[in-house]
Amino acid sequence: MSTEIENSLCPLCCSLDTHFYHQDKRRSYLQCRHCQLVFVPQQFHLSAQAEKAEYDKHDNSIADLGYQKFLSRTWAPLKARLNQQVPADIQGLDFGCGEGAVLSQMAKADGFSVLNYDLYYFPQTEVLQRKYQFITATEVIEHIADAHSVWSLLDRLLDNQGVLAVMTKRVLDTQAFATWHYKNDLTHICFYSEFTFAYLASKFNWTFEIIDKDVVFLTKA
User: Fold this and answer.
1) How many C-beta neighbours within 10 Å does residue 137 have?
2) Residue range 3-220, CATH number
3) Of the four, 8, 49, 97, 167, which is 20 to 30 A from 104 by CA?
4) Confidence bin at 3 (pLDDT 50/70/90)
5) Do the Cβ atoms of 40 and 46 come closer than 8 Å?
């Protein structure tokens, strides 16, 4: 691996203290020593056109009960939390909602109002100009190249005592990573560990909770 690749800037914390983590037939993977994010160097990223073409292959709709069950691993515990802690007329945002915007429809059926934002399918930036009492990001953050800017945006969007519910599979170690199917999706370019989420919680003064094997809650102080 070239020194140029190995010294790539971490897309999350912007540290240059990065090192080789894994190599497969298609891509190299680096890890930041500061925040422990595992990431794919920029030269291996898909173009925006190729990335959207991959997303267009997905057929996630509200009619797919299996997909609803998948999302419920995030929505069910979040709904329970919201019912306990805040009024029913709060406003949420599904960040990176995808073409089907399924989670917001599930939330609506449960009496919650959720707006949608997605870079490709719901690019209305006006929804990024207000505060939300809860934000969901299900299977989103692993796709985001400019992680530093997006996490800062999420912090600005989240109201005090608001909950950010994130679903993404977590990195365990190099041995597990070598055979991990999650890395084989070429649109997945950033991989978060428990340590990385703890780093983010410390940076933004959030409370960090592990909810499930692929779900975490981050609550703003």
Assistant:
1) 23
2) 3.40.50.150
3) 49
4) very low
5) no
